[in-house]
Sequence to fold (126 residues):
Amino acid sequence: MRASAFWLVGSLVGGLVLGYLAHVFRTGTTRNAGIALGVALGLLAGEAAYTVLFIAFVWVGPMDFFVWTRLGAAAVQILLAAAAALVALRLRRPPVSPRVFMMAAAVSTVASIASWHLIESVRMTL
Fold:
């Protein structure tokens, strides 16, 4: 019951955050739109990046089918997030600042990886 409530609250907060970022991307200035898209990319790719880093540096088990499946899913998630960001960058008029977008995406991805580490720690204790 606690785990279900935890993920329900997390999905509600995540949906609100991503919806707000989409609104800022559509209506904001060039700089704000770049920041919003970078943060959204970091949030969408953060779990997959955490999975890749976890398997690369922490995983001590065998590299069996389960691990390769997790890595494949993480790669697809990262590629889809990057493709969505590239399409959004291409379609937005006026265009966003690529430098602002890349800096926001890098910072957001690092923060998202740290957040997923915290979420996994909490999930393991529930």
